[in-house]
Structure formats: structure tokens, C-alpha cells
Amino acid sequence: MKSSEQLYGFKPSSIQIDGMWKNEKPHLKRKDIETILPISGIVTGRNKTEMKLGFKILGWELPDSRVAISDNPKLDKPNPEKLLNMVSKMSCQSPIYFGDSIDDYLLVKNFNEQSKTHMEFCCVGENNQIPVWNYKVKTIMDFFKTDGANS
Fold it and tell me: Under a CB-based contact definition with an 8 Å cutoff, are residues 68 and 43 in contact?
């Protein structure tokens, strides 16, 4: 499977090697998150085709209503509109967002400013200049192993 052909519909003329996606290693395996995947949603900067490829690699399935893709740059992080819609549709009472970038932090900050629901933020990995978080873990699975005790 050639990623350029699958993702963009053409064979590259100047790049003759497989894309870096072939070297990516998932941080989460389906067996690790089977219990939380049914109540999860994803907000990503990837487009729909990239997301489908990622899900195929991971062996995940989520309904389209719980995956917010990048289809309109004005609505990308840190704009909270997609996240507000997803949380509303999922009827979340105590949502938590796992992120590793300043855009993720700003997304949650903006969500909290515009929502009647409070969302907590879990900083995953390095700090990446994120000023405030409710929890901090090395990997997402560490949160579930310790009940978020690394805050």
C-alpha cells in the first residue's frame, strides 16, 4: 500500500521511498483501550483519509460522529467548536482531554471558556510549554494504570 496513492490519489514523482508513517509505532493498542474506546472521541488535525489509515493501522473503529477531523482549517485546534459539538452529542458529564501540545491545552482552555461543562486536561509526554494541566502522564495508559495519580 503506497500512502501517497491511498491518501492523495497520485504516485509521487520526486519521492521514491515509503512515507514515514510506515515507521510510526502506535502508543496505544486496541487491547489496551478496549474498555475506554466505546466512550472515547478523537479531535485531530488529520484529514479523513489519514484518519482512516491511522485507524486501520491501530485496528480501531469509532463512529464518524465521535471523530473530529481537519476538514476546515478555521475549525482546527485551538478552536473548540468541534470539541463542543462532540461532547454535547456524547452527553459527557466529566470529559477529559489527553494532549501533548500547546494547541491541545488551548483547545481545552477555549472549550472551558465557551462551555457549561468543565473539561480536564491531561498532559501526555513532555511539557511542551503547556502552562497548566490537571494531570500529567508519560503515556495515556499511565493515566488509567494510576487513576490519574500523576497530577
Answer: yes
